[in-house]
Amino acid sequence: MANKLISGFLLLLFASLAHAALPIQHWQTASGARVLFVENHDMPMVDFKVEFDAGSARDVREKSGLAKMTSHLMPLGAGKLSEDQVSSGFADIGAEFGGDFTRDSSAFTLRTLSSQRRKAVDLLAAVLDSPRFDEKILDREKSRTIAAIREEETDPEHVAEKAFFSLLYPNHPYGLPPEGEIDTVKAIERRDLVDFYETHYTAGKEVIAIVGDLTRAEAEAAASELSEGLSPDKPLADLPKAPYPASPIVRKIAIPSSQSHILIGYPGITWDDPDYFPLVVGNYVLGGGGFESRLLHEVREKRGLAYSVYSYFFPLEAIGPFKVGLQTKVDQTDEALGIVRKTIDDFVSHGPTEKELEAAKQNIVGGFPLRLDSNRKILDYLALIGFYNLPLTYLDDYTKKVEAVKVDEIRHAFQRRINPEDMVTVIVGGGG
Asked: Does residue 217 sit in the same domain as residue 157?
């Protein structure tokens, strides 16, 4: 009963924050790291997220997988601490250490009791400042990664995802698999890890998000410790803009599967795209709104061709994808694909109805407090705002911008951004 009361109280608390200005404090450390902080003393906990411009987009083709391997090995031994000492150090004080890795960024997360904050920050700082990149551990993790790559080659979903990105982003780092290829992982040496770390894990490229039970002065001290031991900043080239397909691309890959795994897509948007809100709200109607979306209605409800079908925009620094996905029986592939393409084409041509738009707005705005109902969710948004240089009022303005979207803005935005005739299509399955 007590837990339910606490959960209910927290939901009301964060719901009220969602409709009021989120009190984001921000500054830059002496070494150049950008810090975003929300003070909250309701629970004796503190969450940290430290993010760097060190995702797989910083790989080169002949050493793809290097960025992820560097991030993976950083906690596996730091300074005088062995791999086991680092992991047990966090466990002994009840701290939760983790990581996030994307095409754009590499990040480390830490959740700790307020009373153990200093010890936890000391350990995280050691991981950031002095990773050991032990040769034996590197050899072990390369073997594990290669084994995982081989296993994923039999997984239709992974095969489809890998092919989708390689076709949508040819000759672009987004097209490289974040885990690498077998040959490129074999080629990674310790010197490569050290060079990548020294180039990309610098204070000037660091974003530190902090949420929880500490004062501004305590947050400043923690942020300083998490940035002062990093290497001096080194300039990084801007990522190339993603190319647009000049003609439709269809790739069929036969592997043993009773179903076809289908992905359809096109280069979409960045986080600061002026069409962001019309596209996101419009996509809720098209394929992001579950049972209320057109795609699910046409493909599942009317024809029973798939259990689930979805679409979404995934913003990235150099234009992330617009992506549609579904699974269907092999003998229904052509019919399902035809319905999906027609639905997309109709939506791009005409946009949503006023009724569909109002329902989408109500659902997005009504569900927005759930995006901020925990310290961890707020933490992720702070890191997002800091990493992509979004306005500090991004969360405060979100529902207002959703409510302001009009039907013609959605139609025009989709027509500017999505060309249904030149989309990339990947179909995996149907093999014996």
From this structure: yes
Overall average pLDDT of the 29-36 stretch: 96
CB 133 within 8 A of CB 194: yes
Same domain, yes or no: 261 and 298: yes
Which of 12, 13, 18, 11 has the alpha carbon at shortest distance from 397?
18
Question: Do 194 and 102 share a structural domain?
Answer: yes
Which pLDDT tens digit goes with each residue over 39-65? 999 999 999 999 999 999 999 999 999
Range of the domain at 303: 249-428
* Burial degree of 292 (CB within 10 A; 0-12, 13-18, 19+): middle
Provide the 10 A C-beta neighbour count for residue 258.
10
Q: What is the DSSP string of 53-113?
A: S-SGGG--GGGTTHHHHHHHHTTS-BTTB-HHHHHHHHHHTT-EEEEEE-SS-EEEEEEEE
CA dihedral of residues 208, 211, 216, 220 (deg, nearest 10): -20
On average, the pLDDT of the chain sits at 94
Judge whether 52 and 234 are in contact, CB under 8 Å: no
CA angle 396, 401, 402 (to 5 degrees): 110
Question: pTM score > 0.85 for this model?
Answer: yes
Residue 69 pLDDT level (bands cut at 50, 70, 90): very high
Question: How does pLDDT run across 321-351, given as a tens digit for each residue?
Answer: 999 999 999 999 999 999 999 999 999 999 9
Residue range 261-275: average pLDDT?
A: 97
* pLDDT for position 432: 58
CA distance 46 to 155: 38
Shared domain check, 375 and 421: yes
Q: Which residue has the tokens 């979409």?
A: 268
Phi-psi region at 40: left, alpha or beta (left = phi > 0; alpha = psi -120 to 50): beta
249 with 166: CB under 8 angstroms? no
Q: How far apart are CA 416 and CA 93, in angstroms?
A: 53
Which residue reads 């969710």 in tokens? Answer: 377
Cα(279)–Cα(402) distance, integer angstroms: 10
User: Cα(205)–Cα(104) distance, rounded to whole angstroms?
Assistant: 12
